[in-house]
Design the sequence.
């Protein structure tokens, strides 16, 4: 995409590119470990243009989203943003989605690869409602600025200031700030987003690629679409409780999720684990002795820290320090995943994140 100003910017900053759902995005800028470190200690800038985007229009749009997803969206004000999870009637996950309420529509940011599934899920529930689900124009792009200095860096770059949990829209550009995690999302036409990216890089944000994101999300316990976010699991197991309202009343899958929560029937949860080495093909069974205890869903070698992973483990086997087998490796429980979900943009999987397993050590 030689005519894409965002790709041109990344190339000028030393990016190697990879394809993600038909979009050219940075794989790395020479040192994935250092890029990951910047995201944990300062501010790193990720290209999430491969993430799905949907526009929901019509007077019943917000009410429909409220009725078929986990979050309380009824009182979502214009300019506000909130993560929510679409689930099936058994409470199993379709996707974690960021919802932005704009003056004339609702912008949904889905995970990479999830846009078609989310659109089909929405269409199933549109009967007589005044709701239209549309694709934005293709010349859109998205960024995620992540790290403890994200908000400060965005301010230095002159981006519109959004309070935590809210979004600010300008012509062709929306800037959203996550309520909990240290993230600032930027969505808009490619030219505006490329300009914002250049200003963020000049303000001190370190450009980072999909390899660094895969390291970061495993270290931070962030579930990924296609790995941890699948129809095999429910949002409570994935640690996405803050995206669930337990007081709003009915929604698709609510009965199952409410019963698990109210009667403490949850049997599994997502945990960060330390691994003794490469666990082999994923997903891999987690065992204690001859007994199956869960499933390892993600793994990567983190320079300076060794192999790390994410695994769904039965709660009775998952006390910190528990030693298990995961695939061909030994595994030790480090801690349970679960905090404010990372959206928007939904960073449940970095573009082309699947398949990255071993990364060069930092120089």
Sequence:
């Amino acid at each position: 995409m030689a005519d894409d100003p965002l790709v041109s910017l990344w190339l000028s900053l030393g990016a190697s590119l990879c394809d993600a759902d038909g979009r050219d995005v940075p794989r790395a800028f020479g040192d994935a470990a250092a890029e990951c470190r910047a995201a944990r200690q300062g501010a790193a800038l990720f290209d999430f243009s491969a993430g799905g985007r949907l526009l929901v229009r019509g007077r019943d749009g917000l009410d429909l989203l409220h009725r078929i997803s986990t979050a309380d969206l009824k009182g979502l004000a214009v300019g506000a943003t909130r993560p929510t999870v679409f689930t099936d009637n058994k409470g199993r996950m379709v996707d974690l989605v960021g919802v932005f309420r704009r003056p004339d529509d609702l912008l949904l940011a889905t995970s990479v690869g999830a846009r078609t599934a989310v659109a089909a899920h929405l269409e199933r529930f549109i009967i007589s409602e005044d709701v239209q689900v549309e694709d934005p124009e293709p010349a859109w792009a998205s960024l995620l600025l992540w790290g403890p200095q994200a908000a400060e860096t965005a301010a230095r770059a002159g981006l519109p200031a959004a309070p935590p949990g809210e979004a600010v829209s300008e012509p062709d550009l929306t800037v959203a700030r996550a309520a909990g995690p240290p993230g600032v999302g930027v969505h808009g036409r490619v030219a505006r987003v490329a300009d914002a990216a250049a200003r963020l890089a000049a303000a001190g944000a370190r450009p980072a690629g999909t390899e660094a994101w895969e390291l970061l999300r495993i270290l931070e316990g962030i579930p990924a679409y296609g790995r941890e976010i699948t129809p095999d699991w429910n949002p409570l197991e994935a640690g996405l409780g803050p995206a669930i309202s337990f007081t709003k009343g009915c929604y698709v899958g609510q009965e199952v999720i409410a019963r698990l929560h109210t009667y403490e029937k949850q049997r599994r949860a997502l945990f960060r684990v330390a691994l003794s080495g490469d666990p082999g093909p994923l997903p891999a069974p987690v065992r204690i002795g001859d007994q199956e205890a869960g499933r390892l869903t993600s793994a990567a070698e983190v320079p300076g820290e060794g192999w790390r992973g994410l695994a769904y483990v039965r709660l009775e086997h998952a006390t910190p320090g528990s030693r298990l087998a995961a695939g061909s490796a030994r595994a030790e429980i480090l801690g349970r995943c679960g905090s404010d979900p990372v959206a928007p943009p939904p960073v449940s999987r970095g573009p082309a994140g699947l398949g990255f397993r071993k990364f060069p050590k930092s120089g």
Notes: The chain has a mean pLDDT of 89. The two ends are 31 Å apart (CA to CA). The first strand starts at residue 16 and ends at 20. Residues 13 and 205 are 12 Å apart (CA to CA).
